[in-house]
Amino acid sequence: MTSQPAAAERQRDAERTKAEILEVAQQEFARHGYAGARVDEIAARMRTTKRMIYYYFGSKERLYIAVLEKAYAEVRDMERTIEVEHLAPVEAIRTLAELTFDHHDLHREFIKLVAIENIHQAEHIRKSPALANLGTPVLDLIAAILDRGAAGVGFVTEADAIDVHMLISSFCFFRVANQHTFGALFGRDMTAPEHRDRLRAMVGDAIVAYLRGTGS
Amino acid sequence: MTSQPAAAERQRDAERTKAEILEVAQQEFARHGYAGARVDEIAARMRTTKRMIYYYFGSKERLYIAVLEKAYAEVRDMERTIEVEHLAPVEAIRTLAELTFDHHDLHREFIKLVAIENIHQAEHIRKSPALANLGTPVLDLIAAILDRGAAGVGFVTEADAIDVHMLISSFCFFRVANQHTFGALFGRDMTAPEHRDRLRAMVGDAIVAYLRGTGS
DNA sequence: TCCTTAATGTACGTACTAGTGAGTTAGCTG
DNA sequence: CAGCTAACTCACTAGTACGTACATTAAGGA
After folding, report:
1. What is the pLDDT, as a whole number, of residue B116?
2. What pLDDT, on the 0 to 100 scale, is given for residue B2?
3. Does A197 contact B at CB distance below 8 Å?
4. Positive or negative: CA dihedral A100, A101, A107, A111
5. Does domain B1-58 have CATH number 1.10.10?
6. What is the phi-psi region of residue B69: left when phi exceeds 0, alpha when psi lies from -120 to 50, beta otherwise?
7. Any strand C atom closer than 7 Å to A40 CB
8. Angstroms from A6 CA to nearest CA on chain B
9. What percent of chain A has pLDDT over 70?
10. Minimum CA–C1' distance nucleotide for A14
């Protein structure tokens, strides 16, 4: 009875507590925005107290930045697993577009955080050394595909990797980020299952058609 | 000296006061989000007092909804002036895409309000009878172009007007709405003058290429 | 010219909200 | 098992933010 099986049952566990704070904080910030989020509410939804939030993170702002850092790190790790080098340029860029689509479909909270951060003109990202000028592994993938495509199958050269990344991301991001106003105004939930496959194919078709250069 | 030239110099002018409140409030909400906006700050930046805000709008939330209604009305009025029926389908959709691009380029505050409203899951739009199921005149234009294009020059038929509107808007919206995080992470300000023309052409090229159907 | 009322200004109350001072305990280490 | 410190709890405060009670004034009509 006196033996404690593992660290899992420990009552005091700094890492666990910090992780729980970050998780609940991410939800709260994503749901209500930076100013709308309540430190007390975060505390109330945990087994810990508000005092611990300040003990570990110091301030509401530093907690928010920590949430951003964790969210970006997770997304970047996921992006690093993408494998499209073995595909021909057209199929490679289409696959990348569709994976980007899936990726946005899955990380709704992350997308909200990005939208919130843009409202604040990215001031918190700029305060984080871990985030400033981070980039994304996807950019290198796109650059390689564009090079191969330009050399082999006549991809257009007006756009560079950042432009193409933006064309793909914008569609995927918009569909999730603006689902509510779009739904309210047009009566269609773009994130509903019945639209998912069509829109997923659409972003692939659009980027392939664009790169093949029949738009001019 | 006792004559007062016109209403413009009247000290009491309900319409003028209301309009000024809405204008300053739009700035404040767009800059700080709904929760981050301060009623006292709005009042401080006007010639009126906070009391007037409550006299005319009743609450912070109803003021915010009024701001949304005004912003949406202005944008819709502007969209109604678009004239592309006289153009062939390809040129019509390209022109529409480029006008949409310009339109987003100009209405930065409106875009921020839309982003903010999405963070709140469009709850305020849904509370406004004037905004719920509003739609946009652009949808009818697109539908007409798609019909003509499908009949005449072989436009793809997988996407309807709403889908095409989304493809165009997403690119234009993202470029402005996400300029700050994008700039912080990739070191490129997509809204800078040196990128404007290229990106403007890009959205036109992409939508035309997609509709011509070389993406599959 | 007086009277009515819409429009406006002042000053304040209530509730909330980020942040903290100070004390307590679990669990490791020697 | 004694002692130390990181982890944790509790109670509290100072400041802020929305909203309002009440007094006042301008402007037009009778």
Report:
1. 98
2. 32
3. no
4. positive
5. yes
6. alpha
7. yes
8. 41
9. 95
10. D7
Query: In chain B, which residues fall in CATH 1.10.10?
Result: 1-58
Q: Do A132 and B204 touch (CB under 8 A)?
A: no
pLDDT band (50, 70, 90) for residue B14: confident
pLDDT of B98: 97
Residues of B in contact with A186 (CB under 8 A): 135, 139, 162
Report the C-alpha gap between B109 and B174 in whole angstroms.
14
The residue among A110, A210, A211 with the most chain B CBs within 10 A of its CB, best to mutate, is A210
Tell me the CATH number of domain B70-212, given options 1.20.1090.10, 1.10.357.10, 3.40.1110.10, 1.25.40.20: 1.10.357.10
Q: What digits encode the pLDDT tens for the residues B130-154?
A: 998 788 889 999 999 999 999 999 9
B33–A32 CB contact, under 8 Å = no
String of DSSP letters for A88-151:
-HHHHHHHHHHHHHHHHHH-HHHHHHHHHHHHTTTHHHHH-TTTTT---HHHHHHHHHHHHHHH
- CB-closest option in B162, B181, B206 to A117: B181
Q: CATH top-level class for A12-58?
A: mainly alpha
Q: What per-residue confidence (pLDDT) applies to A6?
A: 40
- Residues of chain B in contact with residue A182, where contact means CB-CB under 8 angstroms, are 166
List, by residue range, all CATH 1.10.357.10 domains of chain A.
Answer: 70-212
